[in-house]
Amino acid sequence: MSIVRDAFPQPQPFALAVRVYYEDTDAGAVVYYANYLRFMERARTEWLDALGFALPALEREHGITFAVRRAEIDFLRPARLADRLDVTVEPTGRGASWLDLAQRVLRDGAALASAAIALVCLDARRFRPVRIPPPLAAALAGLPTSPRRPAGRAASPQEPH
Predict the structure, then answer these.
(1) N or C: which end of the chain has fewer CB within 10 A?
(2) pLDDT 10s digit of each residue in the chain, 161 long?
């Protein structure tokens, strides 16, 4: 007997395929921990581009950029030289000037790293928080809104908002 958890299919998170190169690894041919952040940054850039909002265009046309305000990462298993990985982006919450994302680095579906990332939308010249531009806000309209968590308290990717 199977249990149906949800009658409606859930959208799949955005995923970027990444291959581990020699430059990504340490002396033991294991991905250096800081490179997981690089993989996640690339996936966020490609996610926005897939939504139709390339970063250079956001800055040029709307005068904004995004900055990471907080990153909380759990390293679960090592990635190694020549591994083929999927790096996911899944929006978990939003406000007028911020986005919360869950990101994972997967190998063959198994999580190697899991992160909660908080982004803030900034005026590209003054580096002050500003509202997310209306076209991008409209594209993100289906995301849940939630009050900002207290400083220093990050949501885990498994924790509901």
Answers:
(1) N
(2) 333 434 334 467 899 999 999 999 999 999 999 999 999 999 999 999 999 999 999 999 999 999 999 999 999 999 999 999 999 999 999 999 999 999 999 999 999 999 999 999 999 999 999 999 999 999 988 776 665 544 444 444 444 33
**Of 6, 24, 26, 49, which is the active-site residue?**
26
Contact call for residues 71 and 119 (beta carbons, < 8 A) = no
Place of tokens 């958890």: 5
Q: Measure the CA–CA gap between 27 and 31, rounded to whole angstroms.
A: 9
Tell me, yes or no, if 83 is annotated catalytic: no
Domain annotation for the chain: domains and CATH numbers: 14-139 (3.10.129.10)
